[in-house]
Specification:
This protein has 193 residues and is mostly helical. The strands form 2 sheets. It has a two-stranded parallel sheet with strand order 1-4. The protein has a two-stranded parallel sheet with strand order 2-3. Helix 3 packs across helix 4, helix 4 crosses helix 5 and helix 8 crosses helix 9. The chain is globular, with a radius of gyration of 19 Å. The chain has 2 domains: 35 residues, no CATH class; 146 residues, Nitrile Hydratase, Chain A, CATH 3.90.330.10. It contains 11 helices and 4 strands. The longest helix has 19 residues.
């Protein structure tokens, strides 16, 4: 092990102990947060989307209070910025970007994809969202309005895409298997096959 790694571990242990002594956070809370962060993945958001597609009451909760909807599905949201959910509908498509850095709803989508953090994606999505979507193979009708929404340090966003045609009667688990992180950012659309 190198000296820098040892120094980092020692510093982490000292900060953790100090936070505990001050009563700000316990070592158990820190360990819990680390575990939640390490296990977060787009599968959590995909389960939320699938439930919203099949359960009107959950959909209403998700659109009214994304944080409460995430917690109802077992996502650990304490300490996270509020989560907003943008519903796509015929004639309206949403795309999420963080224009300043990489603000991302990690509790429900896991770590941001490398391209989400890139300056190219951030700048081009604001200037030419239709062009960026086309590069992903997402071609929307000219009449469809594209709304670009800025995810910030104070408020995180995810997209509730439209349910793909031909999935009527599918169970939630199968529907969740159709949903990718890029669908919940808005650069792609889920498809049944």
């Amino acid at each position: 092990m190198n000296l820098a790694a040892e120094d980092g571990r020692a510093l982490l242990a000292a900060v953790t102990a100090l936070l505990g002594e001050k009563g700000l956070v316990s070592p158990a809370e820190i360990a819990e947060r680390i575990a939640v962060t390490e296990t977060a993945s787009p599968a959590q958001g995909a389960r939320m989307v699938a439930k919203a597609w099949t359960d009107p009451a959950y959909r209403a909760l998700m659109l009214a209070d994304g944080t409460a909807a995430a917690e109802a599905m077992g996502a650990f949201m304490r300490g996270s910025p509020p989560l907003g959910v943008l519903a796509d509908e015929p004639g309206l498509h949403h795309v999420v970007v963080c224009t300043l850095c990489s603000c991302y709803p990690r509790a429900v989508l896991g770590y941001p994809p490398f391209w989400f953090k890139s300056t190219g994606y951030r700048a081009r999505t604001v200037r030419d969202p239709r062009g960026v979507l086309a590069e992903w193979g997402t071609i929307l009708p000219d009449a469809t309005r594209i709304r670009v929404v800025d995810s910030t340090a104070d408020y995180r966003w995810m997209v509730l895409p439209e349910r793909p045609a031909g999935t009527e009667g599918w169970p939630e688990e199968a529907l969740a298997g159709l949903v990718r992180a890029s669908d919940m950012i808005g650069v792609t659309l889920p498809a049944a096959g």
